[in-house]
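Possible regression after last week's pipeline update?

I re-ran a chain I had predicted before the update to compare outputs. Posting the input and the new output here so someone can diff against the archived version. Not blocking, just want to make sure nothing changed silently.
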Amino acid sequence: MKRALVLAAVLLGGCSMLNGRMEPAPVAAVQPVAVQPGAQIERVPFQVGVSSATVEKLAAEQACTGGKGAGLMTEPGPVEVYRMQCDNGKVFLARCELRQCRKM
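New output (post-update):
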């Protein structure tokens, strides 16, 4: 009986932790880089990722369509960055963490 009460208290106490808001992971600040005249620009080849379709749907919600679609800019892993070139000339960026994507 005592064991059941302890188990119930632990379960109810754990549930109260889920009512709080989860904070997003911090993102490192990016410093601008001065480009030397005549410097080579690194071109990243287009690569489809596991969240490309999800990012394309997010981009369509922001009136961004066209091109090859959403390409993976980082190494595949738990945190990925996608880039999509829009028909109107703008660039749509999204960050996906464990396949949960958000506009950058």
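Follow-up from reviewer: compared with the archived run. DSSP finds two helices and four strands in the chain. Marking as no regression found.
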